[in-house]
Amino acid sequence: MTNFKEIGPEDFNYSPFKLIGKDWMLITAEKDGKANTMTASWGGLGVMWNKNVAYVVIRPQRYTKEFVDSADSFSLTFFDNSFREILSYLGTKSGRDEDKIKKSNLTLIHDNNIPYFEEANIAIFCKKLFAQEYKPESFIDKKIDKQCYPNSDHHTLYIGEITKILVRE
User: Fold this and answer.
1) pLDDT at 119 (0 to 100)
2) For residues 95 and 70, what is the distance between their CA atoms, to the nearest angstrom?
3) Is the pLDDT of residue 120 over 70?
4) Which pLDDT band holds residue 1 (cuts at 50, 70, 90)?
5) Which of 135, 148, 154, 4 is nearest to 75 (CA)?
6) DSSP category for residue 155
7) Which helix (H) or strand (E) holds 160?
8) 3-class SS at 101?
9) How much is the average pLDDT of 14-24?
10) What are the helix (H) ranges across 118-166?
11) 88: Cβ–Cβ under 8 A, 6 or more apart, which residues?
């Protein structure tokens, strides 16, 4: 079993630009005793409403959205580069069609009933605080809407309070 240690958000010395934008992350939540996950490369970490938060975005067609919508919490997990092919698979296959977690050979474990993966190097646990769908009229730079949403499948933004961070020892 992988050994993790808990650190405070103020001790989190990793670049979110690298972790999220370059290395990717898994967003994982559970509904009715079943977990689902998806790979994401958009999001961030910061401070909102005097709380340490993570924010992620999920398109409406993603199966994981149903799980995040129904759960109070979700996890973000980060892996070393040797998991790149698995992350690519988890980002392109739907849990509606197959048990992609089982097929990935990742080990699903829980902390306070929040699912995450034993093989991760970092696990961030978040309590949902906010959810809002992006609206075309909210874009100041209209090119972003045209370029990123040609099918009008606008993301929902989720902001979650970071309740725990685990890093591999």
Assistant:
1) 97
2) 16
3) yes
4) low
5) 4
6) P
7) strand 156-168
8) helix
9) 96
10) 142-148
11) 39
